[in-house]
Design a protein that fits this description.
The chain contains 14 helices and 5 strands. By secondary structure, it is of the alpha/beta class. It starts with 11 loop residues before the first helix and ends with a helix.
Length: 304
């Protein structure tokens, strides 16, 4: 039996219109929209930074205008939602413009999410935390749309989805901003951070204390062990400290390590984390002074 290949019928306007007419119809959708009528995309995961690249974009827009139109969708209340072009909108504001050259697309909420994420992945610099939450948003949107392409995908698409699922694991926990910050700063790889994200906030804090106090980060293997012990209800602060104090190949044997849980009990509850090192150094200085004065008094008594 011969299988019929899938095909879709052309639209009526495609049959009875020329390419030139279709191009003109598309241009009709591109117009200057007042900035005051454009709202940002809800929970937009990509940050807009007023950095050197932004200054260059501002100068380009002042000279040439917006070369690539932003993408908007019309909301139910008659206002516009910015799907792609948050940096261009900010640059227009800095350039003193009142409008943004935009193309208005007919997109559902989920279609807009997918479009927003994929268009932003063309940017040169994306933080791991931005990528994690963006992957999560895209995956949820595709799941709501009922997409199932895992059986017929190309290797590249499979790799993209595995990265998407991986980033979603990190992005699904709203209890991990400190872990994502470490990843953004390059102090921790994504995979160890993903494993730690499965620990409850109580144990995550012990790990973060160890990282700050001893200036070390756990390896992927160490975080897998912590997660396994947590699943078995066998993890505690001392075990975390023991695992974190293990020497790794890229660490020097001279590294000084402390039990963060033990030190934490001796610190004031209201002490800011960034003041921990100063407090400890002052405490050691005070103790050394006290010890010297005590030794001097002892020597005076012996001399009498």
């Amino acid at each position: 039996m011969t299988r019929t290949s899938d095909f879709s019928l052309p639209k009526f306007e495609d049959i009875f219109s020329t390419q030139e007419e279709r191009d003109e119809a598309k241009l009709d959708k591109i117009r200057d929209i007042p900035l005051s009528e454009i709202d940002p995309f809800p929970d937009h995961p990509f940050h807009v930074r007023d950095d050197e690249d932004m200054l260059q974009l501002v100068e380009s827009i002042k000279e040439h205008g917006v070369m690539t139109p932003a993408v908007l969708r019309l909301k139910e209340d008659g206002r516009y939602e910015l799907v792609a072009g948050h940096r261009r909108k900010r640059a227009c504001e800095l350039a003193g413009l009142d409008t943004l050259r935009s193309e208005v697309k007919d997109l559902t909420r989920d279609e807009a999410v997918v479009y927003m994420v994929e268009s932003n992945f063309q940017r040169t610099t994306i933080l791991p935390s931005e990528k994690a939450f963006a992957y999560r948003m895209r995956l949820e949107a595709l799941n709501r749309q009922g997409h199932r392409s895992d059986l017929t995908s190309t290797p590249l698409e499979s790799k993209f989805r595995s990265n998407e699922q991986f980033g979603s694991e990190m992005g699904e926990s709203r209890e991990t901003p400190e872990l994502l910050k470490l990843v953004d700063e390059g102090r921790m790889k994504m995979r160890p951070a993903v494993e730690l994200s499965y620990l409850n906030p109580y144990y995550q804090q012990f790990v973060l204390d160890e990282i700050e106090l001893n200036e070390c980060t756990p390896s992927h293997a160490q975080t897998i062990r912590m997660r396994k012990l947590a699943d078995e209800h066998a993890l505690d602060a001392d075990i975390i400290s023991d695992i974190m104090s293990e020497e790794k190949p890229n660490q020097k044997t001279e590294r000084l390590a402390f039990n963060a849980a033990r030190v934490r009990k001796l610190l004031p509850d209201d002490l800011p984390k960034e003041k921990t090192e100063d407090f400890i150094c002052e405490a050691i200085t005070f103790y050394r002074k006290y010890h010297r004065e005590r030794s001097a008094r002892s020597s005076d008594r012996d001399a009498r």
